[in-house]
């Protein structure tokens, strides 16, 4: 079996050593070299042609963002960012995802050695996912269209629910940016650690015409708003009388994730039924596939991102294999399709 060849770039000798220890312990991957900064990494990339690069966000001589920007322009390759769990670190990491990084791992603030080793399985999975990203597909990743969708008249009963993992932050941005202020309410579960989801929501809020925020326990779910699941809690839909409400749950991880897409989708199936429209976007694994099937059986319209535009075609593939997705839709068309389904189902129910 040919191993995944990884180059680790970090100014910390401790982190470089830990990443080597974690990666070399996996049977299907190896560290071919480490580098203390991007200038050394540049030469090693030319010499060794690694499959995946792990890249620290903040380094001397040239920071990770500058290096990533040049790398993606001159020599695109799968990059996994290594970020600090700080507000500054989370904002820089989100910028890295915009520039083409596949995913990120967060350095623990305390107990770096024990913390990173605890996440060794997750780090290995993210490297495997990054290695599967074909460069041809990455180069075809569509940019969000500047065209904004027109306002629509949709019942306040209508609700959009979206789930994503690897590649999700950029996919979600491309779904939300075109939406008009009159869009149905949107609940979103994105696999992302605590400390990053608020920055993610704030960044989207600056870019979108709808309001985007991190979900809060008990708040009313309103049209024209998108609610991002906090990074350490499940997001569920609840109801009180005529109103939809946010319910947060710190229960056990589902499919090894909290928030879990399956948890959100299952709650939408139970509470909203045919008034919900579900969309499962790019991501590794199978989280969300069973939940999307539950939505379909409850009368919801369902779709999944297509293979060509998915950074990692894992979760959408699982949904398609179960027959849970009624449609497979390219990413640039998902926002328009969600609105069309919301308005069409609203007209059908009024007849």
UniProtKB/TrEMBL annotation:
<keyword id="KW-0963">Cytoplasm</keyword>
<dbReference type="Pfam" id="PF01339">
    <property type="entry name" value="CheB_methylest"/>
</dbReference>
<feature type="active site">
    <location>
        <position position="165"/>
    </location>
</feature>
<feature type="modified residue" description="4-aspartylphosphate">
    <location>
        <position position="56"/>
    </location>
</feature>
<feature type="domain" description="Response regulatory">
    <location>
        <begin position="5"/>
        <end position="122"/>
    </location>
</feature>
<feature type="domain" description="CheB-type methylesterase">
    <location>
        <begin position="153"/>
        <end position="345"/>
    </location>
</feature>
<feature type="active site">
    <location>
        <position position="287"/>
    </location>
</feature>
<comment type="similarity">
    <text>Belongs to the CheB family.</text>
</comment>
<keyword id="KW-0597">Phosphoprotein</keyword>
<protein>
    <recommendedName>
        <fullName>Protein-glutamate methylesterase/protein-glutamine glutaminase</fullName>
        <ecNumber>3.1.1.61</ecNumber>
        <ecNumber>3.5.1.44</ecNumber>
    </recommendedName>
</protein>
<dbReference type="GO" id="GO:0008984">
    <property type="term" value="F:protein-glutamate methylesterase activity"/>
</dbReference>
<keyword id="KW-0145">Chemotaxis</keyword>
<keyword id="KW-0378">Hydrolase</keyword>
<feature type="active site">
    <location>
        <position position="191"/>
    </location>
</feature>
<comment type="function">
    <text>Involved in chemotaxis. Part of a chemotaxis signal transduction system that modulates chemotaxis in response to various stimuli. Catalyzes the demethylation of specific methylglutamate residues introduced into the chemoreceptors (methyl-accepting chemotaxis proteins or MCP) by CheR. Also mediates the irreversible deamidation of specific glutamine residues to glutamic acid.</text>
</comment>
<dbReference type="Pfam" id="PF00072">
    <property type="entry name" value="Response_reg"/>
</dbReference>
<dbReference type="InterPro" id="IPR035909">
    <property type="entry name" value="CheB_C"/>
</dbReference>
<dbReference type="InterPro" id="IPR000673">
    <property type="entry name" value="Sig_transdc_resp-reg_Me-estase"/>
</dbReference>
<dbReference type="InterPro" id="IPR008248">
    <property type="entry name" value="CheB-like"/>
</dbReference>
<dbReference type="InterPro" id="IPR011006">
    <property type="entry name" value="CheY-like_superfamily"/>
</dbReference>
<dbReference type="InterPro" id="IPR001789">
    <property type="entry name" value="Sig_transdc_resp-reg_receiver"/>
</dbReference>
């Amino acid at each position: 079996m040919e191993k995944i060849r990884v180059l680790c770039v970090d100014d910390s000798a401790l982190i470089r050593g830990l990443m080597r220890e974690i990666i070399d312990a996996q049977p299907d991957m190896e560290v071919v070299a480490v580098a203390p900064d991007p200038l050394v990494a540049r030469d090693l990339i030319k010499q060794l042609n690694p499959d995946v690069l792990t890249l620290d966000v903040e380094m001397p001589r040239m920071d990770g963002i500058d290096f990533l920007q040049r790398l993606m322009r001159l020599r695109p390759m799968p990059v996994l960012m290594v970020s600090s769990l700080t507000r500054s670190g989370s904002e820089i990491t989100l910028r890295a995802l915009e520039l083409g990084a596949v995913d990120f791992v967060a350095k623990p603030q305390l107990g770096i050695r024990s913390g990173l080793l605890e996440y060794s399985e997750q780090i290995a999975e993210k490297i495997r996912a990054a290695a599967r990203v074909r460069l041809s597909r990455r180069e075809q990743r569509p940019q969000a269209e500047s065209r904004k969708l027109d306002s629509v008249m949709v019942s306040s009963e209508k609700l959009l629910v979206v789930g994503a993992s690897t590649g999700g932050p950029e996919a979600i941005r491309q779904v939300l940016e075109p939406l008009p202020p009159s869009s149905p309410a949107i609940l979103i579960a994105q696999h992302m650690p605590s400390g990053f989801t608020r920055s993610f929501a704030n960044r989207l809020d600056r870019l979108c015409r709808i309001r985007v925020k991190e979900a809060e326990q008990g708040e009313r779910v309103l049209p024209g708003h998108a609610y991002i699941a906090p990074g350490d809690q499940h997001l569920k839909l609840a109801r009180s009388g005529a109103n939809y409400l946010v319910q947060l749950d710190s229960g056990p991880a589902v499919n090894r994730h909290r928030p879990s897409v399956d948890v959100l989708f299952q709650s939408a199936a139970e509470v909203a039924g045919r008034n919900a429209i579900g969309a499962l976007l790019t991501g590794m694994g199978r989280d969300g596939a069973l939940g999307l099937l539950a939505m379909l059986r409850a009368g919801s319209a369902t779709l999944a991102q297509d293979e060509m535009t998915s950074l990692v075609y894992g979760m959408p593939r699982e949904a398609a294999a179960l027959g849970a997705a009624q449609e497979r839709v390219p990413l640039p068309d998902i926002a328009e399709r969600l609105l069309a389904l919301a308005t069409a189902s609203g007209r059908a129910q009024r007849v």
